[in-house]
Amino acid sequence: MKFPEDFTTAPGFDPAEDHIGPFYFLKVDDSDENAVIRQNLFAFEVASRHCNEFDSVHGGVLMTFADFALCRAAAEHYQVETCVTVSFACDFLAGASLGSLITCEPRVNKRTGSLAFVSGDLMVNDGIVFSFNSVVKRLPFK
Prior knowledge:
Layout: E1 7-8, H1 15-20, E2 24-26, E3 42-45, H2 59-74, E4 82-92, E5 101-104, E6 107-111, E7 115-124, E8 127-139
Antiparallel strand pairs: 1-2, 2-3, 3-5, 4-8, 5-7, 6-7, 7-8
């Protein structure tokens, strides 16, 4: 699958995510102040390298994708800060097969001076396959 041109990747930022992905995010064009912008939309297509022996996406891949999405959301796409995951809890609710498009719109529930609390669901079409809650430590760029 070729993602629409308004999705992009960030190769070189995180070598582990590059190796497991590619994971995509929606580029934000904030030049139109009247546009409704979905800043925290993330996606990837399940390829054979993402699957387990049952031709279903491996749980570790879902966890890595969720972490990718939640950290980008928590750190505002790494525009002003970075972050590291402090805690992560998840539930596997359904499988996703080869060729599935998995999407996520994480919710930043609260930001404090040093932490962000993020939750979300990984979706295939209109069905939830995975849900998560996490806490990340907010860090300034060095």
